[in-house]
Amino acid sequence: MLELHSLTAGYDRRSPVFREVSLSIAPGEAVGLLGPSGCGKSTLARVAALLHEPDAGRVVIDGTAAGGWRHRAPREQRTAFGVVFQQPRLSADPRLRLSDLIAEPLRANGRGAEVPGRVAELTALVGLGEELLGRRPHEVSDGQLQRACLARALVLRPRWLVCDEMTAMLDASTTAALVAVVEQYRRDTGAGLLAVGHDRVLLKRWCERTVEWRDLAERAAAGLG
Ligand SMILES: Nc1ncnc2c1ncn2[C@@H]1O[C@H](COP(=O)(O)OP(=O)(O)OP(=O)(O)O)[C@@H](O)[C@H]1O
């Protein structure tokens, strides 16, 4: 279970982006979070994945309260999450070849021995041609780079996936392919998913449950957070 309890977060403690927001995702569940631009969906997603420290509230991951955020999060909790962002070019080191980009989390966690096997498996899973593995981000398309970023997010076999507008920059066929990869991974592993976006049709089709930001905010304001 991924539990977000009464989270208050933002970028200035005096005026947080949201207050007292709560949301829970059951093991293996796919939840879509819909809301207008700027309401705080990405901020909530980053807090959920332990990438942004909230001002108040708790994140509980499979029964254990988050022990920190970013590099201060315990490794076991940090690696429980795979995260894919909207803009692959902002989340990919431009100096890395795609094979090293995908392998980065394994090396950072002292699991370099697994690199050849996992990179080959994931390259096939996300539909990335092997000839692209030696290229750097500026030598591939947005869709190809996002496939590599999805492979990187899956490489440690996370129990939770957070996809923050993962397909917003992609065409319909790449969107369908990446959603299919996430769903295949979830079927194989039982991972849970928080998918953030504006595309109501996509999220309703993709996720078992969709949540409107407005409803989360109303519950919070009513003290039901
Ligand atoms: N690094 C930052 N520093 C300061 N303010 C920020 C930062 N990132 C986001 N914000 C602000 O926080 C608010 C919420 O942003 P957030 O990205 O969480 O919204 P969102 O709902 O995901 O929007 P979108 O759908 O457009 O991605 C916005 O007003 C935004 O300008």
Radius of gyration: 17 Å
Count the E strands: 9
CATH class of the largest domain: Alpha Beta
Q: Could you say which small molecules are bound to this protein?
A: adenosine-5'-triphosphate
Q: If you consult CATH, what is the topology of the largest domain?
A: Rossmann fold
Largest sheet: number of strands, sense, barrel closure: 5 strands, parallel
Rounded mean pLDDT score: 95
CATH homologous superfamily annotation of the largest domain: P-loop containing nucleotide triphosphate hydrolases
The CATH architecture of the largest domain would be: 3-Layer(aba) Sandwich
Instruction: State the secondary-structure class.
Output: alpha/beta
How many separate domains?
2
Could you say which overall geometry the principal axes of the C-alpha atoms support? globular
Q: Please report the number of helical segments.
A: 9
Low-confidence runs (pLDDT<50, min 5 residues)?
none
Q: Termini distance?
A: 17 Å
Strand content is 15-25%
Output the strand order for the largest sheet: 6-7-8-3-9
Give helix % range.
Answer: 25-40%
Order of helices and strands: EEEHEEHEHHHHEHEHEH
Pfam families: ABC_tran
InterPro entries: AAA+_ATPase, ABC_transp_ATP-bind, ABC_transporter-like_ATP-bd, P-loop_NTPase
Organism: Streptomyces monticola
Keywords: ATP-binding, Nucleotide-binding, Transport
Can you walk through the features of this model?
With 225 residues, the chain is an alpha/beta fold. The chain has 2 domains: 1-80 and 158-225, P-loop containing nucleotide triphosphate hydrolases (Rossmann fold, 3-Layer(aba) Sandwich), CATH 3.40.50; 94-156, no CATH class. 38% of the residues lie in helices and 21% in strands. The chain is built from 9 helices and 9 strands. It has helices spanning 41-48, 75-78, 88-91, 98-108, 115-126, 142-154, 172-189, 200-206, 213-221, and strands spanning 2-9, 18-25, 30-34, 56-61, 64-65, 81-84, 160-164, 192-197, 209-212. The strands form 2 sheets. It has a 5-stranded parallel β-sheet with strand order 6-7-8-3-9, sandwiched between helices. The chain has a 4-stranded antiparallel β-sheet with strand order 2-1-4-5. Strand 1 and strand 2 form a beta hairpin. Helix 4 crosses helix 5 (115-126) and helix 6 (142-154) packs parallel to helix 7. The mean pLDDT is 95. Bound molecules: adenosine-5'-triphosphate. Keywords: ATP-binding, Nucleotide-binding, Transport. Pfam families: ABC_tran. Residues 2-224 form the ABC transporter domain. Belongs to the ABC transporter superfamily. InterPro entries: AAA+_ATPase, ABC_transp_ATP-bind, ABC_transporter-like_ATP-bd, P-loop_NTPase.
